[in-house]
Amino acid sequence: MLNEVRKRLAAIVKNEAGQTLPIVLAMMTLGSLLVVNTLNYVSTNVKTIRMVETKARSLYAAEAGVEDALWKIKYDTPPSLPYAYSAGTINGMTVTVSINNVTEIAGVEIGPTGVHEGWLKVTKSVSYSGGVYTFNLSIRNDGAGNMKIEQVLVDFGPDLVYVEGSVTSNLTSDDPTVIGIPDSGITLLWDIPSPFFTMGVHQTEGFSFQLSGPELPEIESHAMLRASREDVGVVWDADSRPFSVTSQAKDAANALKASLKVGVWKGQSQISISCWQVNPQ
Q1: Is 54 helix (H, G, I), strand (E, B) or coil?
Q2: CATH fold of 123-148+162-219
Q3: 3-state SS record for 110-157
Q4: Is the CB of residue 20 less than 8 Å from the CB of residue 14?
Q5: What is the pLDDT of residues 55-88, one digit of tens each?
Q6: Is the entire prediction scored with pTM above 0.90?
């Protein structure tokens, strides 16, 4: 009886032995496909992570270059522009910085300053009452001859609206072209028609207008005049001067990895950033 059972078990094992190999081979093939796909996925993820890390490091390096330029503008303004220099190696990137004059504000082309820009003095003041700001420019001719003003531009921060018909000045009584919207800030531009008002030597003229808006702790504003005399050119108010800063980060192969372009206002006591572009074209 025992021998009969052994014979039957041996026969079953013998008959099933041939079916194990195909199953094992199929499982091995399926497993290899899964492993290859998984490895490809992991490799792609690693490459993506490295690219993101490199991009982040390069942007941080370029930003450090901007911070260095802001320090120079505030405490050690270059005597002449454009001014280009190396900020050294930051995050494994070589950072170069350029400080330049601004050539455009709110789409308005800004001309160069003249050798005698100091002949025209511009100061400003602001008062507030009943929801209305009165903005005053004081313009003084300290030059060696008569002076004519052909353009006035004033740039403001957000939340202010120009009051139509509020201009009081011998230069012009026309309303300006209003560029931008109050939510993000407006720029007021007066292209004064010819014949221009003539300012004699040591003469002071006022230029005032009104803005409506909420009472703010401080109004950020920047005023520019353009004189008809080329030796005077563009003159900024005593509290304002604009700069353009470009910072670039390059890798060891000198390939550009990140670039930042920043618009900067320098006042008497502070530096403010007006715009910020990443990898500008």
Answers
A1: helix
A2: Immunoglobulin-like (2.60.40)
A3: CCCECCCHHHEEEEEEEEEECCEEEEEEEEEECCCCCEEEEEEEEEEC
A4: no
A5: 888 999 999 999 999 999 989 888 888 999 999 9
A6: no
Structure tokens at 169: 């000045």
The residue type of 266 is K
CA distance 234 to 103: 11
Cis amide prior to 214 (ω within 30 degrees) = no
CB-based contact 222:265 (threshold 8 Å): yes
Whole-number Å distance between alpha carbons of 141 and 57: 51
For residue range 23-33, what is the model confidence (pLDDT) as tens digits?
Answer: 555 565 655 55
What tokens were used for 103?
């050539």
Helix, strand or coil, per DSSP, at residue 168 = strand
Phi and psi, residue 25, nearest 5°: -65, -40
| DSSP code, position 233 | B
Q: Where are the domains of the chain?
A: 1-113+233-281, 123-148+162-219
Residue 151, both tokens:
């353009």
Q: Residue 212 in contact with residue 156, Cβ under 8 Å?
A: no
Record the tokens describing residue 248, joined without a space.
């670039």
Beta strand residue intervals within the chain, DSSP E: 83-90, 93-101, 104-105, 108-109, 120-129, 132-141, 147-156, 161-162, 168-169, 177-181, 185-191, 198-199, 204-212, 221-227, 234-236, 241-250, 256-266, 271-278
Is-contact 260 277, C-beta < 8 A? yes
